[in-house]
Amino acid sequence: MDWFDLIVVGSGPGATFAAYGARGRGILVLDVGHDAPPCAELTGNAYELRRGAEDLFPSLIGERFESLRNLWKRPISLKLKSPCMSYIVRDWERVAPVASESFEGAISLAKGGLANGWGAGVFRFTDRDLAGFPLTAAELRPYYDELTAHIGVSGANDDLAAYFERDAGLLPPLRLSSFFAELMGRYERLRPLFEREKMAMGRARLAVLTEPRNGRAAYDYGNLEFFKPHDPAIYTPAYTIDEMIRAGAIEYRSGHLVTRYRETEEGVEVHSRNLATGAAEVARGRKLLLGAGALNTARIVLESNSDYQTRLPALDNPMACIPFFRLQRIGEPLAVHDTSLAQLNLVAEDAEWGEPLQASLYGTTGPLRSDVVFSLPLSIRANLVWTKYLAPAMGLLMLFYPGRQSSGSYVRLWPTGELEVQFAPEPPHEVERRLIRLLRKMGYVTHAALIQRPGSGAGLHYAGTLPMRANPGLHERPCEKPYERPYETSAEGLLAGTQGVYIVDGACFPRLPAKNLTFTIMANALRIGRGVAQRMGQRLP
């Protein structure tokens, strides 16, 4: 019978860096582990390919019209639907079903998780962001620094450093397109206006190489992020999983769906289903690190407790997408070398929320025109013409709101195995009109009627189902007896009521600021994994 020091579930950002932090122990990683299918190599850039390639239909649209699925099916993120990128969300609705009529998100069972198609935005949490965590920014800082060196982060210590913290290890930022270079120039001239509005703008911080590093090439501005998997310049945890496999630091078993665990006197039994054979399998280890993603980690914990009643809290970042236009640029030639990644970030202090809101600014030259055509208020034929000529003149401001606790946002496991997922809708807020007024003063045309609001769960920043507390599991109210809260975790990641089950993904976040949480999931998981390994003492023979 094989015994492991640690069993890690998943291969997303949390699971990967928990295993990375615990290197030197005997580690088994159990994962479904879908990977990209064989795909025709897309070389060059999107502009030249669309002009000169003989037949791009299989690569961009797909033989089953995969890239057009948002026209007739429940919408999903544009980066998750093309023929060579849809593996990221392959089979999840069958293997990890969700019960919800309003849920417009997705779950990933791929090696590397949803980060195979993420926006690559990396944001350090400040003490303000960590309010409610039993952690400080100083405690996470060395892990952020280690990650910056490991994955490569491009950006600048500019006006946003107060919100993102200074980072001495940054690579140079991505080159701005002419559209965003002009926008940044206007910001610099109008900085006093932004200061009065309590807003700031700066270069995007991205897990993207602008210089070669560790055998990975620098970003080539091919603008193919929506269609091309595994661009070596754009980091995904799958790279680190593969590095650990090659180094013999982990035993990686793909094709295994973990369903539940059971603690014993010796340690923990982890039950999974072999998806190739359908057979039930059991792995045994001293400790268990759960990093299957906030939703699936919650599913495993509830199933392990045969709990079909409890509603666990759930968080996501609601979004508002504001298109804006520089009319003088209509009809200009499309950029040959461009990017679909965020080029700038904007932070807005907002009295209504009492904390900063964050926006990422994108161009529109990467997606298919069919992904934009139905968002414009004209006929389809007119929209097709407009999208052709508007692309060089159009930007998208994606505004993220903090996730907040609500009785309407929760997950609950059904006896059938479906996970009920509900996120309360977020109404419009005055800050959107503030941003529209500011864009107009900068010379950009937009209107509140153009704002797009992605649906429930579309943010894909799931968190908070098993929140981290200073004193987990037992709480006191004035003049009342202590009451139990079993589904909470300690600062070390230990799930209340267990001896060796640790939560290493976004499930343990007690709150969710208006920032992409992936970098902080990585840093926290690295901290937890290293701490677990150090406390385990002598290795098993």
Plain-language structure description:
The chain has helices at 13-21, 46-52, 57-61, 92-95, 137-151, 161-164, 178-189, 191-196, 237-247, 294-304, 370-373, 380-390, 430-441, 518-535; strands at residues 3-9, 27-30, 98-99, 199-203, 251-253, 256-263, 268-274, 280-290, 312-313, 319-325, 344-350, 355-363, 394-400, 410-413, 419-422, 473-475, 483-485, 501-503. It has 541 residues and is of the alpha/beta class. The chain has a single domain (3-535), classed as FAD/NAD(P)-binding domain (3-Layer(bba) Sandwich). The longest helix has 18 residues, at 518-535. Mean pLDDT is 88; it is low at 479-483.
Task: Give the topology.
Layout: E1 3-9, H1 13-21, E2 27-30, H2 46-52, H3 57-61, H4 92-95, E3 98-99, H5 137-151, H6 161-164, H7 178-189, H8 191-196, E4 199-203, H9 237-247, E5 251-253, E6 256-263, E7 268-274, E8 280-290, H10 294-304, E9 312-313, E10 319-325, E11 344-350, E12 355-363, H11 370-373, H12 380-390, E13 394-400, E14 410-413, E15 419-422, H13 430-441, E16 473-475, E17 483-485, E18 501-503, H14 518-535
Parallel strand pairs: 1-2, 1-8, 2-5, 3-15, 8-18
Antiparallel strand pairs: 4-11, 6-7, 7-8, 9-14, 10-13, 11-12, 12-13, 14-15, 16-17
